[in-house]
UniProtKB/TrEMBL annotation:
<keyword id="KW-1133">Transmembrane helix</keyword>
<feature type="transmembrane region" description="Helical">
    <location>
        <begin position="406"/>
        <end position="424"/>
    </location>
</feature>
<feature type="transmembrane region" description="Helical">
    <location>
        <begin position="53"/>
        <end position="69"/>
    </location>
</feature>
<feature type="transmembrane region" description="Helical">
    <location>
        <begin position="168"/>
        <end position="189"/>
    </location>
</feature>
<feature type="transmembrane region" description="Helical">
    <location>
        <begin position="444"/>
        <end position="462"/>
    </location>
</feature>
<feature type="transmembrane region" description="Helical">
    <location>
        <begin position="106"/>
        <end position="128"/>
    </location>
</feature>
<dbReference type="InterPro" id="IPR020846">
    <property type="entry name" value="MFS_dom"/>
</dbReference>
<keyword id="KW-1003">Cell membrane</keyword>
<keyword id="KW-0472">Membrane</keyword>
<keyword id="KW-0812">Transmembrane</keyword>
<feature type="transmembrane region" description="Helical">
    <location>
        <begin position="140"/>
        <end position="162"/>
    </location>
</feature>
<feature type="transmembrane region" description="Helical">
    <location>
        <begin position="334"/>
        <end position="351"/>
    </location>
</feature>
<dbReference type="Pfam" id="PF07690">
    <property type="entry name" value="MFS_1"/>
</dbReference>
<dbReference type="InterPro" id="IPR036259">
    <property type="entry name" value="MFS_trans_sf"/>
</dbReference>
<feature type="transmembrane region" description="Helical">
    <location>
        <begin position="230"/>
        <end position="248"/>
    </location>
</feature>
<dbReference type="GO" id="GO:0022857">
    <property type="term" value="F:transmembrane transporter activity"/>
</dbReference>
<keyword id="KW-0813">Transport</keyword>
């Protein structure tokens, strides 16, 4: 009996390693190109005004297809979909690494986003299939949730090192051995449950087009302003498609997003909180990277290394502080604590100045922010999938990832526009570094406002009752 138990534990541990690594991969690739963008632009002759498409194209495909990817896993087999997504991601990485122009690279990033949208919900659903409800699953979800924050920092660290020492193409090529190892590792994962029912094709199409249009409109608004004609048109199309999606869901027999998935107030709150955290986190990385490279003139490698405190903080928050809080307090209190810590860190970042020593604000504030976000990501992930019927775990997993992606696009668009307005409104004669830093610190304060809004959402939507504590079975 002991031998069987030990064998099962070892296999579950290996499965968790593969699932967490898959999540780390797709989150990491959302930011890995950030530090290397100037080198990519120079290497492929991409205009500076078009460079943001290297980031946006991935977010568009990833955010737009997550719900469809989650439902496909429920219907066609989650391990099968995980493997298919990894193969798509592998091919996209090869294509990106050999890209000869900007169009080819952007196409590869779109394909990476498609692969990521298949991988993410399948991985989270397989985790729920592998670990029984209760403390064992919550620990596994804690590891998985930590990847949401750690992956973004890892992308910045790895992107900086690869760009400086091997060239920007290795930002793509590095995925090849990673994916091959993951494909081998899927042998340790249970096939996962497979639900009966038909594919809601009208729902999948309207959801994908609505989310893709929304992400595009949000990103365009960040570059061209909310009054831009195309931005308003695409935004209106997104609203119409969203309404069409809701109508379809009410009429079809097997809806892609069953009403029960969002019927629980706590689950709805978890998705809203994840949206707000995504909005704040992506904007934080954006402004800190600009500050380090445009104001402090750090090299790509030094910029990546400067994010180490963030990575350490997320590790502490997700693996040390978070689990202890979850064992003693309701999830509402845990989330509120994490978001309070993150908001305080944004206030600390607002003290940045052009000539300031990194030890005063830049590095220690990152450590604090990482702890807060590490606590928050784990608690929100656990809440977002708790109590979901097995047949709907894929779509619930896709939804929690979708809200983070859409939140990131929305937050960056709003805060980038705000920062630019602050910078350009500085009095005449203000030195450029000071004007830029004023815009960046205002954007970071805006990220703090998103975290404060997440606290409000936790207080209003999450119940303080003991059954909400993550350590108890569903």
């Amino acid at each position: 009996m002991t031998s069987h138990t030990e064998l099962r534990s070892q296999k579950s541990g290996l499965a968790l390693l593969v699932i967490a690594a898959a999540q780390l991969l797709i989150v990491m690739d959302g930011t890995i190109v950030t530090v290397g963008l100037p080198n990519i632009g120079a290497g492929l002759s991409i205009a500076e005004s078009d460079l943001d498409w290297v980031l946006t194209s991935y977010a568009l495909a990833f955010g737009g297809l997550l719900l469809a990817g989650g439902r496909a896993g429920d219907l066609f087999g989650r391990r099968r979909l995980l493997r298919a997504g990894l193969v798509v991601f592998l091919l996209a990485s090869v294509l990106g690494g050999v890209a000869q122009d900007g169009a080819m690279l952007i196409a590869a990033r779109v394909l990476q986003g498609v692969g990521g949208a298949i991988i993410a919900p399948a991985a989270l659903s397989l985790l729920a299939d592998t670990f029984p409800a209760g403390p064992e699953r919550n620990k596994a979800l804690g590891v998985y949730g930590a990847m949401g924050g750690l992956g973004a920092v890892a992308g910045l660290l790895l992107g900086g090192a690869l760009t400086e020492y091997l060239g920007w193409r290795w930002i793509m090529f590095i995925n090849i051995p990673f994916v091959l190892l993951l494909l081998i590792g899927t042998l340790a994962i249970v096939p996962g449950t497979r639900e009966r029912g038909g594919l809601d094709l009208p729902g999948a199409i309207t959801a994908t087009l609505a989310l893709g249009s929304l992400v595009y409109a949000i990103n365009r608004a960040g570059a061209d302003g909310l009054g831009d004609g195309l931005t308003l048109t695409v935004g209106a199309i997104a609203v119409v498609l969203a309404l069409a999606f809701v109508t379809v869901q009410r009429r079809v027999r097997n809806p892609m997003l069953p009403a029960g998935v969002l019927a629980d107030r706590g689950r709805l709150g978890a998705n809203l909180i994840m949206l707000l955290m995504g909005a704040g986190q992506l904007a934080t990385f954006y402004f800190l990277t600009l500050y380090m490279q445009s104001i402090k003139h750090y090299s790509p490698m030094i910029t990546g290394l400067a994010y180490l405190p963030f990575a350490i903080g997320i590790g502490l928050g997700s693996a040390v502080v978070g689990p202890r809080l979850q064992a003693r307090a309701p999830v509402r209190n845990v989330l509120a604590t994490g978001m309070t810590v993150a908001a305080l860190a944004m206030g600390w970042f607002s003290l940045l100045t052009p000539d300031q020593n990194a030890l005063v604000t830049l590095l220690p504030a990152q450590l604090v922010a990482g702890v807060g976000l590490g606590i928050g990501f784990v608690a929100a992930t656990i809440s977002g999938v708790r109590g979901v019927a097995p047949r709907d775990s894929g779509i619930a997993s896709g939804l929690i990832n979708t809200t983070q992606q859409v939140g990131g696009a929305l937050g960056l668009a709003i805060l980038a526009t705000t920062a630019l307005t602050v910078t350009t409104s500085q009095p005449g004669g203000t030195p450029e570094p000071e004007a830029l830093t004023s815009g960046y610190t205002t954007g970071l304060l805006g990220a703090g406002a998103f975290y404060l809004a997440a606290i409000l959402a936790a207080v209003v939507l999450l119940r303080p009752a003991s059954q909400n504590r993550p350590q108890h079975p569903v």
